Amino acid sequence: MGIFNFFSKEKKETLDKGLSKTKENVFSKITRAIAGKSKVDDEVLDNLEEVLITSDVGVDTTLKIISRIEDRVSRDKYVTTAELTAILREEIAALLTENHTEDLESFTVPEDKKPYVIMVVGVNGVGKTTTIGKLAYQFKKAGKNVYLGAADTFRAAAVEQLVIWSERVGVPIVKQKMGSDPASVAFDTLSSAKANGADVVIIDTAGRLHNKINLMNELTKIKNVMKKVIPDAPHEVLLVLDGSTGQNAFEQAKQFTAATEVNALAVTKLDGTAKGGVVIGISDHFRIPVKYIGLGEGMEDLQVFNRKEFVNSLFGE
Asked: Which part of the chain is the SRP54-type proteins GTP-binding domain (predicted)?
């Protein structure tokens, strides 16, 4: 099934609504950048560079995009300002493709990994626990048998929130008392999930960044203990970032990618913010695929990331 078949009208509307503030912000700036100009020249490119940087795309990624557009202008000789958004769409979509961001068709996991183990990392407050709950809902909706593991044993609120989500979604959760060894919770979760034929296991972890060495040691220990139950676990280390924090999300990504081998990203809270451009910058800078984006509070408001639809929503069809 192709991307244009599975990306429903409802999903498109949710995406458009979630990115509306970013789109409004970007378009108003682009309109000012090309005011009074009929063709793309150095002044327009300088203005566009400022637009992208102030839209939280990031300096390095912005320079790549501008360089690509310069090449197009040089090659095609005359590019009108009316063509600019179309070129932006094409070049940013191409950039995301080069950074291994592929369009997912649905909430699926590899059939040859059972259970498929996802270890979720991220600082407190980014929507980590909520994202886990929504993922569990989507996987269960897709017919998967899902287990949750509450390995953030340092915050009572984190465990309580995950328990609420497990009850809401109707999936089992493995937890221990506060202050327990997180690796022990992960071991118990995987053991129980494996014994009961689970398809997907999602493990929550503590979101403390005050000491990177401690964080690294803790995450490494959790992963090593998982391997005792399932040798190639975790299959996915999913970093959750709050898109509304803009450049601060870059710093969090830097810290976590230094502490553990992150291989997937979820960017939350894109609704209600004008900083949606951060998705492009983070994907490009860290070369880690964005798998999911959060566009609201509802269970259906976590979407698999589709680069073409994302770019179309951001810069217009």
From this structure: 289-302
Q: Is 96 annotated as a binding residue?
A: no
| Spatial separation of the C-alpha atoms in residues 276 and 296, rounded to whole Å | 13
Binding residue per annotation — 88? Answer: no
205 is in an annotated binding site: yes
What is d(CA 33, CA 51) in angstroms, rounded to the nearest whole number?
8
Residue 42 assigned as binding residue: no
Give me the pLDDT at residue 4, please. Answer: 37
Tell me the per-residue pLDDT of 75-122, one tens digit each, with 9 for 90 and over. Answer: 887 778 788 888 888 889 888 888 765 666 678 888 899 999 999 999
